[in-house]
Structures are given as structure tokens and as C-alpha cells.
Write a structure and sequence with these properties.
By secondary structure, the protein is an alpha/beta fold. Helix content is 29%, strand content 25%. It has a seven-stranded mixed sheet, with helices on both faces. It has a four-stranded antiparallel sheet with strand order 9-10-8-11. The protein has a three-stranded antiparallel sheet with strand order 5-6-12, covered by helices on one side. Strand 1, helix 2 and strand 2 form a beta-alpha-beta unit. It starts with a helix and ends with a strand.
């Protein structure tokens, strides 16, 4: 099956299995998360789902929810109370222990806040996102305060990372996140301890957040090229 169809399949499957009326749901960002968002909108319009309270992780997702009629709140809203029943999101890489790299779309800060505020966490991917070791092929994003770009770069290089400032595609200059920060993308030449680095990178002054997601083990829905969706607990 073509990759876009796999993304549609896995997003719909996760929503159909996990989302129930009355839930408080975090909604992720990116090309694999969007089919899940659209499925929730479709089920709300049909009346299959009711009383869904959604928290968005990006401007992209917020716009999609507004267009689909999905009621939006923030984690600070009284109706949400800082805790979600479930978050559904995509990932850039998933290792055998369900550790993740996220943030290819630049929304890692809110994605992590929402994910770690959820009782249950589901990741939807196609099989191309499965790897043995994180950060060797797909870069780990590190969101930084603009004024700390160079000092953070030097600190990351001391950890063994190759560092590049993410540049915009259809805009001159660097990518600016939804929160007004910059992104440093880092790659490693040999396997690293993602759990250790998630904490260590965040200790660098000027770092806002990084794209290692290791503290909350997700349930991973994997779309195989055969059209089968495998669920890995």
C-alpha cells in the first residue's frame, strides 16, 4: 500500500479502537496524526462520538480542528483540568522499546507537554518509522531560545552530536516554532542512550525541550505495507 494510505489506515484504526464519547483527547501534529484528527471530526459529525474535548499541539492541528468542528480547549481550561484521557500523535522514529523521536514538524514542545499530561498515549506510524536506534538517521530536534543558539550548539557538540540550525523551506532564514524559538537538529554517529540524553539535553541553559520522548511509554499502532495494523504495547 502507498504510504499516504497507510497513514490514513493507522490513524483511523487508532481512533476507532481508543476514542470514546466524553473523552478529553490530545491531538498531535503532522502527516500521520492528521488522519486521526480527521477521523474524530468525521465521527463527531455522524454522531458516533459525542462530548469530545480536544487539546491541540500546534497551529496546524488547531486549524484542522476548527475546520472539522472539533471542540478545542487548552490544558489550563477548567473542563480539562491539566489532565487528558488520551493523546494520539505520530512519530519520526520508534525504537524496539517504544522510545520516540518527535518534532520533525517543529511542534515538539506542546506535543511533549500534552503527551506527558495524558493517562494513555498512542502513537500512529507506518513501518518505515521503526528503527533499532534513535537519532542515527533522523535528527533529534532541540528547541532553543534564540539568544542561546550558539552556546547550546557547543554543548550539544560536546555530547557527540552533529548540529545544524533548521532552515525554513518557503521562507528565508531559520524555522521559528509556534512559541517563537529556534530548532537545532542533531544527529549521532553511534547509538546513544535516549533516556539519559532526554534529561541531559534539557539541563543545558537555553534549551526549551528536545525531541527524545522516553518517559511515557506509548502504545504504538504500526501500519504494515501488507495493509495490516499491528499494535505494539
Amino acid at each position: 500500500m502507498e504510504q499516504q494510505r497507510l497513514k490514513e489506515l493507522v490513524g483511523q484504526t487508532a481512533v476507532d479502537q481508543l476514542v470514546r464519547s466524553g473523552m478529553k483527547v490530545g491531538l498531535g501534529t503532522g502527516s500521520t496524526a492528521m488522519p486521526a484528527v480527521r477521523r474524530i471530526g468525521e465521527l463527531l459529525q455522524k454522531g458516533v462520538l459525542k462530548d469530545i474535548k480536544a487539546v491541540s499541539t500546534s497551529f496546524q492541528t488547531t486549524v484542522a480542528c476548527e475546520e472539522l468542528g472539533i471542540p478545542l480547549y487548552t490544558l489550563n481550561s477548567r473542563e480539562i483540568g491539566g489532565e487528558l484521557d488520551l493523546t494520539i500523535d505520530g512519530a519520526d522514529e520508534v525504537d524496539p522499546d517504544n522510545n520516540l523521536i518527535k518534532g520533525g514538524g517543529g511542534a515538539l514542545l506542546l506535543e511533549k507537554i500534552v503527551a506527558y499530561a495524558s493517562k494513555n498515549y498512542a502513537i500512529v506510524v507506518d513501518e518505515s518509522k521503526l528503527v533499532e536506534h534513535l537519532g542515527l538517521a533522523f535528527p533529534v530536534p532541540v528547541e532553543v531560545i534564540p539568544e542561546a543558539r550558539e552556546t547550546v550548539r557547543r554543548a550539544l557538540e560536546k555530547l557527540g552530536a552533529r548540529v545544524t540550525l533548521r532552515q525554513a523551506v518557503r521562507k528565508a532564514g531559520p524555522v521559528v516554532t509556534d512559541k517563537g524559538n529556534l530548532l537545532l537538529d542533531i544527529l549521532f554517529s553511534q547509538p546513544v542512550d535516549a533516556r539519559l540524553l532526554e534529561a541531559e539535553i534539557n539541563q543545558i541553559p537555553g534549551v526549551v525541550e528536545n525531541g527524545f520522548f522516553t518517559r511515557k511509554r506509548p502504545q504504538v499502532f504500526i501500519a504494515r505495507s501488507t495493509g495490516i495494523v499491528e499494535v505494539r504495547p
